Amino acid sequence: MLFIVAGLSTRAVADSTANYSITGTYDAATLSTALSGPGDSFTMNFSLPTNPGALVVDYMIGDDFYVYPLNISYSFGGSTSTLVGALVGFYSPSGSQPGGLFIDYCVSPTCLGDPEYQWIFGGPQQYTGSEDNPTIVPTSFTPTYQSFAVYPTADDDVYPSSFSSVKVNGKPVSTPEPSSLLLLGAGLAGIALLAKLRS
Fold first, then answer.
1. Total domain count, the chain
2. How many CB atoms lie within 10 A of CB 74?
3. Angle at the Cα of 25 from the Cα atoms of 152 and 160, rounded to 5 degrees
């Protein structure tokens, strides 16, 4: 049960916000639910403060911390909804999990009797500092470990899965903005002038 995922993440310095965008396609063997389906595509977007100290509800120094609650915009099956009250965990690669980030969403606030969804993107640490005072620093990576699981009910039933060709925080190659080219040109002209003055 695989799904392909690609992602984009940016850090907006002006408002100290980390923005995540993850897109992907579920594998043909994925369980059909309201939020997952075989061969279907999805998009997941969320933002959080780069210093989420007030949102940290649980952490282990040197291992992980969790941000809760977060609202995640989720597009799937031709419509967009909000996953209200999702939990996002950030892990150290040297801790109990494979680094990267973990997303957990329960359909009901109690997680009892309704589906629970978990996406894991293992990879480089997405923060600096200690877990009790972290700074989110989104990093582009291809996960070293990844999985997706659905718990349809409150009992022990679980439908595990995984995915391949994953990119988290991947930035697409694009044409530079004209202002960037102008700045580059000015810098090269300055270097040329400096070289001419020295000769």
1. 1
2. 20
3. 35
Two tokens at 197?
């003055």
> How do residues 48-94 score in pLDDT, each as one tens digit?
999 997 677 667 888 999 999 999 999 998 999 999 999 999 999 98
Distances from the Cα of 154 to the Cα of 106, 114, 165, 184, 197, angstroms: 10, 7, 31, 58, 76
Q: What is the pTM of this model?
A: 0.75
Domain that holds residue 193: 3-198
Spatial distance between the Cα atoms of 123 and 103, rounded to a whole number of angstroms: 14
- Residue 145, beta-bridge partner list: 122
What is the C-alpha separation between 52 and 31, in angstroms, rounded?
A: 34
Give the SS3 label for residue 192: helix
Q: Which residues are within 8 A (CB) of 74 and not within 5 positions of it... i.e. 6 or more apart?
A: 35, 42, 43, 44, 80, 81, 82, 83
Distance of CA 56 to the CA centre of its chain: 17
